[in-house]
Amino acid sequence: MMNVSVTTTKFDLTDHELRQMCQLGVDYVDFGTGSSFPGVKEQGFPDLDELLKMKRKIRSFGLDINRVTLPDLSKNFMDQEEGSELELENSVQAVKVFGEAGIKIVRQRFAGDTFNYMTESYQARQRGGAIARGESLGFNKEPYETPTLEEHEQWWGQFREAYSKIVPVCEEYDVKLGMHPSDSPNHDTPFGGLGYRRIMDEFPSKNVGYIYCVGTRAEEGGSPLVLNEINHYGRKDRIFLVHFRNVRGSLPTAGAFEEALLDDGDMNMFKILLELRKVGYNGCLNPDHVPMMEGDRPDLDGNWAHSNIGWSYGSVGFAYSIGYIKALLAALVEFEG
């Protein structure tokens, strides 16, 4: 049975927040910011005791931790700056801490996996004045260059260096290492359509897979691409978490896209659910980027000012999205008889 998770960008979840998650029917929490954990600023990786304390608190509300984020690998590491190897050591230590805490999915972020300078972000006004994130190639009039082939392969060399150290530890601690696609999926981004598959080619371990973002991949190729990729990765049991977001348009067809409410984008989200069920997916569905509805507050991260990527107490958009997903899951059970 699939479950529902929500992302938080902070560590200190209050009783009010956890109680509201429970009331809405959330099953799991995903921690989306690697630097938010106690201990990271002090020693470079999370403090196990503080992590276990928060896990107990979350479980007391009938929820649990689904996915966490490792400390970031910065541009210094990707450029092989002196001393940056400590960043990788901290990520390895973080995997051990999360493994000891019984947390089963981690994500490693890499600097340079997106080319945000290629698009212009704008405020997309949708049904009834709901505000969503829009990205346009055409609105950006500034010249830009993408990496050369040599620069691209140098970047991948550092990616391989990192994964070659992290993957064995994930195997030892029974932790799954999931990667989110490049968002936005501009051409030549490392984790666009071709690079995303390359992860599994380079590291065929069963502990290596994907945080498959339905919306991000639709931005590159719409429903047909999403359904085909779910079939491809899902049959191999490499989808560890699904970001369940709808969008309008795509970069190849419209030169732009807009995130949308789950029932108001280009995709039929029930068809997405059927494909996930077909390949035996039993993980979490996370509403991910949620458009802002009347009374909602914009995300605190200026890079995502036109959507909510982190759980927000009292958010109408999150309540709508969670309820919609739970209704789809109930319909799926009835549909299957």
From TrEMBL:
SUPFAM superfamilies cross-referenced by the UniProt entry: Xylose isomerase-like
Keywords: Iron, Lyase, Manganese
Pfam family, one: UxuA
Reactions listed under catalytic activity: D-mannonate = 2-dehydro-3-deoxy-D-gluconate + H2O
Protein role: Catalyzes the dehydration of D-mannonate.
One Gene Ontology MF term: manganese ion binding
Protein species of origin: Rossellomorea aquimaris
Listed InterPro entries: Man_deHydtase, Xyl_isomerase-like_sf
This protein's name: mannonate dehydratase
Any Gene Ontology biological process: D-glucuronate catabolic process
Native organism taxonomy: Bacteria, Bacillati, Bacillota, Bacilli, Bacillales
Source superkingdom: Bacteria
EC number from the UniProt entry: 4.2.1.8
Record family assignment: Belongs to the mannonate dehydratase family.
Top class in the EC scheme: lyase
Pathway note: Carbohydrate metabolism; pentose and glucuronate interconversion
Cofactor(s) the protein needs: Fe(2+); Mn(2+)
